[in-house]
Design a protein that fits this description.
It is found in: Membrane. By secondary structure, the protein is α+β, with helices and mostly antiparallel strands. 53% of the residues lie in helices and 19% in strands.
Length: 460
């Protein structure tokens, strides 16, 4: 697997090489156009010189030939000059009479409407100039090979190839150094992370520039470490609390069995011992069921089936169930400003989990109330359902409020007033989060109010 440093180097070299190739091809292409244009200009000048000597000075063929050769200090390779009379359909003059057929093959391409024509044939470049006088229409045709231009293009090609190869080598070295410097902070981060262990999970990754991309990555990673630290602390507290919760009834059960086995006792004593063991067994069963419920809520969150649930009806069902189990409970349901739109009473959620949510909150409200009484206020407005559950129980200290939704946490204000394990509110919070709702708590000397807010079907 190629590492990031190598990939960055390859990409840098590849992109810059493409740019160099593009510019090199541009230089070569425009240099070629320039040399061709310059050579056509030389051919055109030769044609004009021939026209001047032949038609204006009225020189003989041999004289014209000598003057043309003397006029150019740099003779053209394989130069051939011909004069073709369009009226008589014959070649009047040629510097190479033995090879007049070379120019004759271009005669069909001559266009009388054009003044000058530029043609190519293999390595030859040809210029034809159209002249009209009293004696008829003539074409002066000049051809030659630009050997100097070809050699210049070959030299330019070699220079560009050498320069590109040298540039690729330099780009590879500079790209590697550039990638190494760009990734240097990542190496520092890796070294820091390698020093993190559960024993020092409170450490965080440091980076000098928090505004660049690596700084944002470090900030995100530190946020992950915060969540991991919180999860580890919760796990430690969970293990400590569950160990304590299990230890007490198990120790009590073992102690009662040991005492009962020391000597023979009367049936009444054994009966009292068995009833005590039965109560301790039920306590363990309730604790185990609560833990399973908490685990199922966490694990099966994504597998829950959501459906329309009418919350006012669910409240009545919850009240009925609680009153069947606890005859001494008094639950008052209040529905001020009851909506006419049925969608304002319906939320999309899992009916069973919402039932557990209401059961836990109302049960806690009655359980911690001196008169086992709770008031439930139901209000639907602006696309949300707000359910406020109030009891007149002891005030929860302000310092304990941020922790009451943690598993096994029990406030000192309520721990002595009722039996429990401190798991119910943790389940409530998970159900609220699954349904994208909100929960808040307010506790005063008059009592405690838990308020939950859920979105209705009317808001979608």
């Amino acid at each position: 697997m190629i590492n990031i440093r190598t990939r960055l180097t390859y990409q840098f070299v590849f992109l810059v090489t493409l740019i160099l190739l593009f510019f090199s091809l541009g230089v070569f292409f425009f240099s070629k156009l320039y040399l061709e244009k310059r050579f056509f200009k030389r051919l055109q000048d030769r044609a004009i010189t021939t026209t001047t000597l032949l038609f204006d000075l009225k020189q003989t063929d041999s004289t014209v030939l000598r003057l043309i050769d003397a006029a150019d200090k740099e003779p053209l390779l394989n130069e051939n000059i011909s004069v073709y009379n369009e009226t008589n359909k014959e070649v009047l003059f040629s510097t190479n009479p033995a090879n007049t057929q070379f120019h004759e093959q271009f005669i069909p391409q001559l266009d009388s409407a054009a003044q000058t024509l530029y043609l190519r044939k293999n390595e030859y470049q040809i210029v034809a100039i159209h002249l009209t006088d009293k004696k008829g229409k003539n074409w002066v045709i000049v051809s030659g090979i630009d050997q100097a231009g070809t050699e210049a293009l070959d030299d330019l090609k070699k220079i560009l190839m050498v320069m590109i190869l040298a540039a690729i080598l330099l780009l590879g070295i500079s790209g590697w150094l550039f990638a190494n410097r760009a990734l240097a902070p990542m190496s520092g981060i890796i070294q820091q992370v390698n020093t993190f262990f559960p024993a020092n999970v409170g450490k965080r990754v440091s980076h000098p520039n928090r505004s660049d991309e690596i700084g944002l990555l470090v900030a995100t990673f530190n946020q992950l470490l915060d969540r991991i630290e919180q999860a580890l602390n919760t796990q430690k507290m969970f293990i400590a609390n569950i160990s304590h919760e299990l230890k007490n009834p198990l120790t009590k059960i073992n102690s009662q069995i040991d005492v009962a086995l020391i000597q023979k006792r009367s049936p009444d004593v054994y009966e009292r011992t068995l009833k005590s063991l039965q109560e301790d067994g039920r306590t363990l069963t309730r604790l185990t069921n609560t833990l399973l419920e908490l685990a199922n809520t966490s694990i099966q969150a994504t597998a829950m089936t959501f459906e329309p649930v009418r919350m006012d009806e669910l409240l009545w069902e919850t009240k009925t169930q609680l009153l069947e189990w606890h005859k001494d409970y008094q639950i008052q349901l209040l529905f001020p400003d009851f909506p006419d739109d049925e969608d304002a009473l319906i939320v999309r959620g899992n009916r069973a989990s919402l039932n557990v949510l209401l059961m836990n909150l109302i049960d806690n409200a009655c359980k911690f109330s001196p008169a086992n009484t709770s008031k439930v206020n139901f209000l639907s407005q602006n696309g949300t359902i707000t359910i406020a559950i109030f009891n007149e129980g002891p005030q929860i200290p302000e310092a304990d409020l941020p922790h009451i939704f943690q598993p096994f946490f029990r406030s000192n204000a309520t721990a002595q007033s009722s039996n429990g394990h401190g798991v119910g509110l943790a389940i409530v919070l998970q159900i609220i989060e699954i349904h994208s709702g909100e929960i808040s708590v307010r506790s005063t000397f008059e009592g405690t109010t838990f308020t939950i807010v859920l979105s209705t079907m009317a808001s979608f």
